[in-house]
Amino acid sequence: MSESRTFTAVPSPAPAEAPRYPVTDKVREALAITQRGVDELLPEAEWLNKLARAEATGQPLRIKLGLDPTAPDLHLGHTVVLNKMRQLQELGHQVIFLVGDFTSMIGDPSGRNATRPPLTAEQIKVNAETYYQQASLVLDPARTEIRYNSEWSDPLGARGMIQLAAKYTVARMMERDDFTKRYAAGTPISVHEFLYPLMQGYDSVALKSDLELGGTDQKFNLLMGRHLQAEYGQEPQCILTMPLLEGLDGVEKMSKSKNNYVGITEPANTMFAKILSISDVQMWKWYELLSFRSSTEIAQLKAEVDGGRNPKDAKVLLAKEITARFHSVAAAEAAEADFNKRAAGGIPDDIPELSLGGGEMGIGALLKAAGLVASNSEGLRMVEQGGVKIDGGVVSDKGLKVQPGQFVLQVGKRKFARVTLS
């Protein structure tokens, strides 16, 4: 990925009104690609004119996405915005992947009902390195500019921070929904939290951004960028918000803590099987937000399903596309074969093997020792629900004492272990 570290913030006179450029079919197509799956694109007329200008002048637009490296791993929910960046990158525009190494030390208050603990410099460094690698699985590394907001935030200093803070009022800051709720509830708000949206907005000034992307929870911060660019005499950026992706349960947003996620570094077989587990209804939102297929292709596929084609066919295509993106086409094909084998009651070739001593063992304790459940009680619940098999036979007795020998344990459809008990 290319990297640049030069910036000088010098306020300039307010720009004259932007000239209008011809809106061609190519520009309309670019607008349609921009709008696919978005929650809001503001202001749409300004973005249309930016697209028209880019085509007329051959000057690519600067598309900014800022991510604070608050955790080391990304899941498919994080890639919704990255996918949109990739689509804009394919249109020929300059994508800027901004690592919030400075803002991470403040802590983003978006959607929070309490002060967010800031990260240490060491945590930020470790997480940021992983972010680069994982974002590169979606973005084209050769056409991605990586920046760090410490480049311009550190040199700002106390004087610059005070001057920046003077460009926004406390009353406007308190219009932010999470601040309003916390203030009404008597929940403490630290002064440094007011600095977060200001610093994120200042990033747009530093990068001369034409468009900034984020989740729906980032709208206030994105609008701050427009405000500050105008204050610094720049043409204000447009903003684009993407919806939050529901996880495997189809209800809550995708989250590792809720265990309803698909991690982008998970094994291919696991990724494929998890995607196959989503509902037929939810599948179409995943297509819209995660697939690189065209809207026309997806509409055709949906029409075929509505006309009687098995929805599983469409889900398999989605699972293979996403698995291939983060692994390979061969890995996706192998994952499909593995899934079909499991679904047919077969035992996959590649399963964990372990040896356990101590003689006969209760089924709950055995499942826990084999790493197939978290506790004895969970193992017994799985037996009760008919979800446990030994060598393909369903176990129905919770009091079963398993005798020494070699056998294959199975829990649910996806968990196996070949055990030698002695």
From TrEMBL:
Superkingdom classification of source: Bacteria
UniProt motif ('KMSKS' region) ranges: 253-257
Domain RNA-binding S4: 361-422
Quaternary structure, from the entry: Homodimer.
Catalytic activity: tRNA(Tyr) + L-tyrosine + ATP = L-tyrosyl-tRNA(Tyr) + AMP + diphosphate + H(+)
SMART domains, sorted: S4
UniProt GO MF annotations: ATP binding; RNA binding; tyrosine-tRNA ligase activity
Location of the region described as Disordered in the Swiss-Prot/TrEMBL record: 1-20
EC number in record: 6.1.1.1
ATP-binding in keyword set: yes
Gene: tyrS
Subcellular locations according to the entry: Cytoplasm
Protein name per Swiss-Prot or TrEMBL: Tyrosine--tRNA ligase
One of the GO biological process terms: tyrosyl-tRNA aminoacylation
Keywords: Aminoacyl-tRNA synthetase, ATP-binding, Cytoplasm, Ligase, Nucleotide-binding, Protein biosynthesis, RNA-binding
Pfam families membership: S4, tRNA-synt_1b
Main subcellular location of this protein, as a coarse class: cytoplasm
General function of this protein: Catalyzes the attachment of tyrosine to tRNA(Tyr) in a two-step reaction: tyrosine is first activated by ATP to form Tyr-AMP and then transferred to the acceptor end of tRNA(Tyr).
Record motif 'HIGH' region, residues: 69-78
Entry similarity comment: Belongs to the class-I aminoacyl-tRNA synthetase family. TyrS type 2 subfamily.
